[in-house]
TrEMBL record:
Species this chain originates from: Caproiciproducens faecalis
Sequence ranges assigned to domain DUF6873 in this UniProt record: 23-244
InterPro entries: DUF6873 (IPR049238)
Pfam family, one: DUF6873
Protein name: DUF6873 domain-containing protein
Length: 249
């Protein structure tokens, strides 16, 4: 297996992903596609609806470099056994916002990062500064949850601050209607938390993407980017903290 150079955007079929460990039907659907899974287990420091969400507990920097929430020793050990160079976040996460979203930032291609500077962990900010990655500052702390990365210059989001900031930064944006994503304990979840790439140009969802009221616009937008939409299972779209691709075949 090879490490993915650009976070979220594999160049080949994905062979290893990280995701919540509490959705066996989705895990089975990915394993049926020969994708190994790093199960992200519940973190007691976070609120129960999101305590096992990958996009809350780790942040892939690219290649074998990855940031893990400080204190998550089991997750750190799993990743190190797979060859990752793991960095702990500077700050311990906790239930209260904004302490819960320290790693929740969205990397777009090799040179841009969407996130809230006020909530983002210093380890991510330092990495961006040292690697000439442009910081696109937004009001939304849950930036990764709120962003579907389609390609290295295209995103889908329901968040107005992300849509505006990304457009101003030259990113192609499809703005969709908020909601229509299930997340227990909340009114609704975010579309970015329902998906992840499983191959180059193949975006997989945790439920039926056809159930979203903006499906036709989403499909047209992704068709223009040569990105295929895949529903891994039937039923409502579930915000599980995303499916984070880490290695390819």
């Amino acid at each position: 297996m090879r490490f993915i150079n650009t976070p979220n955007l594999p160049e080949l079929d994905v062979a290893l992903s990280a995701m919540s460990g509490t959705y066996p039907t989705i895990t089975d659907a990915l394993r049926a596609r020969k994708i190994e899974i790093i199960n992200v287990m519940p973190c007691k420091a976070l609120s129960e609806p999101v305590f096992d969400h990958a996009d809350m507990l780790l942040h892939h920097l690219g290649e074998n470099r990855i940031i893990v929430a400080k204190g998550e020793e089991d997750l750190k050990r799993k990743l190190e056994q797979l060859g990752f160079q793991v960095i702990y976040s500077n700050i311990c996460i906790s239930k209260l916002y904004p302490q819960d979203v320290k790693l929740n930032c969205a990397r777009i291609g090799s040179r841009q990062m969407i996130g809230n500077r006020k909530t983002m962990d210093a380890a991510i900010q330092e990495f961006c500064a040292c690697n000439q990655i442009e910081m696109i500052n937004v009001k939304q702390g849950y930036a990764k949850c709120s962003t579907v990365v389609v390609d290295n210059n295209s995103i889908i989001t329901a968040d107005p601050s992300i849509a505006e900031a990304a457009t101003n930064a030259g990113i192609d944006v499809l703005k969709i209607t908020p909601g229509y994503v299930k997340l227990e304990g909340y009114k609704y979840g975010f579309l970015g938390g329902t998906c992840g790439m499983i191959a180059k140009g193949k975006l997989a969802f945790t439920g039926s993407i056809q159930s979203h009221p903006n499906y036709d616009e989403i499909k047209k937008f992704c068709d223009q980017k040569n990105v295929e939409l895949v529903s891994l299972v039937e039923g409502p779209l579930l915000d599980i903290g995303g499916i984070l691709p880490l290695k390819t075949v």
